[in-house]
Structures are given as C-alpha cells and as structure tokens.
Amino acid sequence: MELDKTKKVYCLTPVFNDWDSLNVLTTQIEKIQTKNFNISFSIIVVNDGSTEENKFVIKNKFVDQTILNLKINIGHQRAIAVGLQYIYNETKDYDYVVVMDCDGEDKPEDILLLLEKGIVEDSKKIIFAQRKKRQESVLFKTGYFFYKYLFYFLTGQKINFGNFSLIPKTLLGKVVHQNNIWNHYSGGIIQSKISFDKVLLDRGKRYHGVSKMNFNNLIIHGLSSIAVYFDFLSLRILRYSLYGIGLCFISVMYIFYQKMFTNNAIPGWASSLILIISGIILQLFSVTLIVLLLQLSSRKNINAPNPKIYLDFIENKEELK
Fold it and tell me: Which long-range contacts link 50-55 to residues 24+ away (Cβ below 8 Å)?
C-alpha cells in the first residue's frame, strides 16, 4: 500500500488473562511494521483487571507499547471505552485508532485492509470488519444468526460486525462523547449516526486457549447492544402493545356478536373468554405503561458525556519503548 506520508496507527486491545495471545499479537504487528515502514504502529493494551500474572514480556524494536492497568475488571466494552478516552486525551500524534481483540480472531494483517478503506473514504468514516467467514461452532453461528434478526426486529437496524474497526482521528472525539459505547461499542456507533462503512474479512483462529466469553456473557453482550436502542425499543413495544390491545377488543366484540346474534353461544364460555381477554389487555397496558415511564425517567436524568471518566478506572500505566 503506497502512502504519501507515514500514517501513525494506535492499536487498542483489551486483555483479561490472555497474556500468551497478547505476546503473539504484538509480534505479528511488529512483522507488519518491518514490511511497511510507511505505517507507524503503537499498541495500547487495556489490562481489564486480570487475575493472572502479567506475562507480557515482549519488547519490540519498532513498536511502542503502553499497558493501562485498570483498578478492577469492568468488562470488554468498557475497557475499550477507557482506551479510546485515554488516546483521545493523552496522545496527539496519530492518524487512526484500530480497535481489536488480542486473541487472534481479529487478524493483524487485516489492519492494512481497514487502513486502505479508511484512506479511500478520506478518513470521514469509521471502518468496521464485517465477517464473511467465521471459525466458531455451529451452535454459536446459529445463535448469532437469530441474534442478528432479533436485533433488526427490535431496533430496525442491522448489525453484522463486532469491535474490529478503524477510527480516524477526526472522528474519535465524536466516539468518546457517546455514552452508549460503554455498554456496547459497535451498537453505540450505529445508534450515534456517525458515518461508518464495512470491509468483508474472514475471522481468524485464536492463538491460545478458548474464548472467555461463555454462554451467559454472550447473552449479556447481545442484550447490551439492544439496550442501546431503548428509545426506539420503547416505541416498538408501545406499537405492538396497541396492536395487541386492538386485537383483544376485536375478539371481545366478536364474542358479543356470537352471544347476542347467533345460536352458537355455549352457556358460560362468553364470560370466561371475556375475563381472559380483559386480563391480557390489562397486562399489555401495564407493560406499556412501565416501559414508557422508564423511558421518560431515563430522558429526564440524562447526564452530559464525560470524556475524562477513564481517569477513575486507571490504576497505573507501563510503557515499553
């Protein structure tokens, strides 16, 4: 890839006990660096409260590395948000930020493809990696398939990419001022209306071990992406509740018609059905009312985005140059 000048790229990766994979990742990034001197890499590692001893020992000749040690484990998405705020507030000389996992599933060599697309878009869009081939089990792929359609049904938006992305420096300020990225990074970007595009890339294989994301964590991660759209979701719930209430009223009118104007009525069945339908109407009304009250309450208590809240989570930092 020919560039008119050297591009400075920060690679941001959160880690929780996966030190062996991190060592492989940094080695791979240095190999890319040695073949592309028109790109200057630096690695920002967010140590998300790891409970195992730090085994990050590799000091590369060409790649600067900084480890941000957090006070506690705050989760993968919040660790990304902390790293983004750190880069935004405490670094100056860079062109792009790459958000990626350290386990090898986000392949380092694909950074060049993200960077190429970012340059084509004149650094006006965030570039995400959309997966065209995945390495996970059939069970995971099946669950992910249903998750994508559930997300679309509830939010009206399509999500078919994860955290692996390229953020131009010009857009990083908009990203760190989004409160929703603390719950779900990619979902927060979609909800924020920041311009983005996608590049089709294969998912890589893990360097070491197995994923720390168990079934429960995956469920929470998926629900977090939907929770970002609470405003839109509350309106969808209201709409479908009104449809349900309308259908219940039509059913009641049909029962009255059968009772009063036909000979099909069986003693006792009309009153029983009306009581059942009335209970359904009451439940739908109650659920809708609770959701709307929660929505109004959340809008009332909106806090201004704090782009320096990362300072509350960082215990110390280590620089390997």
Answer: 50/15, 50/16, 50/17, 50/19, 51/17, 52/17, 52/19, 53/19, 54/19, 55/19, 55/20, 55/23
Mean pLDDT, range 267-274, rounded to an integer: 70
- b/e for 246-277, b at 16 or more Cβ within 10 A? eebeebbeebeebbeeeeeeeeeebeebbeeb
Distances (CA, A) of 205 to 11, 21, 120, 137, 209: 19, 11, 28, 12, 10
Instruction: Write down the mean pLDDT value for the chain.
Output: 82
Taking the C-alpha atoms of residue 315 and residue 155, their distance in angstroms, rounded to an integer, is 37
| Nearest residue to 14 (alpha-carbon basis) of 71, 82, 65 | 82
Measuring CA to CA, how many Å separate 95 from each of 73, 118, 169, 262? Answer: 29, 11, 5, 77
Sign of the C-alpha dihedral, residues 145, 149, 150, 151? positive
Contact 65, 42 (CB under 8 A): yes
CB-based contact 77:224 (threshold 8 Å):
yes
The reported pTM is: 0.76
The 10s digit of each residue's pLDDT in 50-88 is 988 877 766 666 788 999 999 999 988 999 999 999 999
Q: Please state, for a pLDDT cut of 70, what percent of the chain lies above it.
A: 78
User: Is the pLDDT score of 25 beyond 90?
Assistant: yes
Task: Give the tokens for residue 29.
Answer: 């990034």
What is the model's pLDDT at position 214? 55
Distance CA 60, CA 26 (A): 8
Cα gap 56→19, rounded to integer Å: 6
Cα angle at 148 between 143 and 149, to 5 degrees?
Answer: 100
